[in-house]
Amino acid sequence: MKKYISGLSRLLLLAGVMVTASCTDYLDKAPGSDIDENEPYKNFRNFQGFVEELYGGIPSITSTDSHNAWNHGEDEYWEPSDTRPVSYHVDQGNYRVMVEDGTYIYGFPRNGNGNPESDKKADKGNIWRLSWKCIRKANIGLANMEKLQSATQEERELIQGQLLFFRGWFHFMLMQYWGGLPYIDHVLPSGETPMLPRLNYRETAELAAADMEAAAKLLPVDWDKTTAGRPTLGNNNMRANKIMALAFAGKCLLWAGSPLMNYESSGDASYNTRSEEH
């Protein structure tokens, strides 16, 4: 009996050591360490999955069911004394409502009330965080274009065109509220504090427009008529295309040439015809 208990004890001890060792080995691994770093870029399907996250990063700025009153004009709010709408805060010069997670965004306070739908809408209203995140992602994609080996020329152009479009478009989204910005066209080192010069509105707009014009040369008018778009036939109409790229490039330059933005850029409160040369 003693022998039996002794043997059982040894067996249990050995099992415990094996479990502990295997758990330790598993916990020592970094998240995603078993995935090859080139996996997201190796073919069109994988790379397009990487790009799809940029569509998910598009901020919500016109959601009327979220107490957003942009469409009501300057003289009308959701309610006469309501101070919740984002348009009210923008009129007060308080752009922090589109930056901080802890504030209410589009009427939804993040106050720990356990409403995931409210938090989801609040996250989609964070234009500052979403835009910089997606600009970085677009730059990472562009920096890894050479890793897209298993792809046709059409597929390569679709990927590159979308990345260029979104890099320009997200800068344009930021410019509308914060004016001229540093234009980030490369992957910034994650361990360093960037010290980049702030451009004026026109300079930022021309770089954003250049990215979108470059994208227009690569993107189709209709994804359904491309070979790469056939697997998602009928569901491609919201993907970035040539018309979107040219339209936003034009809008970007039109606003840059306006008297208000030209005054910010040059001190001249008249139309800037230089931006119209594009």
Describe this structure in words.
- It contains nine helices and no strands.
- The chain is mostly helical and 278 residues long.
- The protein has a domain at 40-55 and 151-278.
- 29% of the residues are buried.
- The model is unreliable at 101-113 (pLDDT under 50).
Describe the secondary structure blueprint for this structure.
Elements lengths: L1 H26 L16 H13 L29 H6 L24 H9 L2 H17 L9 H26 L22 H18 L23 H15 L2 H8 L12
Helix pairs in contact: 2-5, 2-6, 5-6, 6-7, 6-8, 7-8
Rg, nearest Å: 25 Å
Count of helical stretches: 9
The average pLDDT value, as a whole number, equals: 80
Shape designation: globular
Catalogue the unreliable spans. Answer: 101-113
Amount of helix: 40-55%
Oligomer: single chain
Strand content: under 5%
Largest sheet: none
Question: Order of helices and strands, N to C?
Answer: HHHHHHHHH
Give a count of the beta strands, DSSP E runs of length 2 or more: 0
Quickly give the structural class: mainly alpha
Our measurement of the CA-to-CA distance between the termini, rounded to an integer number of angstroms, reads 93 Å
Précis, in short:
This protein has nine helices and no strands. The chain has helices spanning 2-27, 44-56, 86-91, 116-124, 127-143, 153-178, 201-218, 242-256, 259-266.
Brief descriptors of the model:
globular; single chain; 278 residues
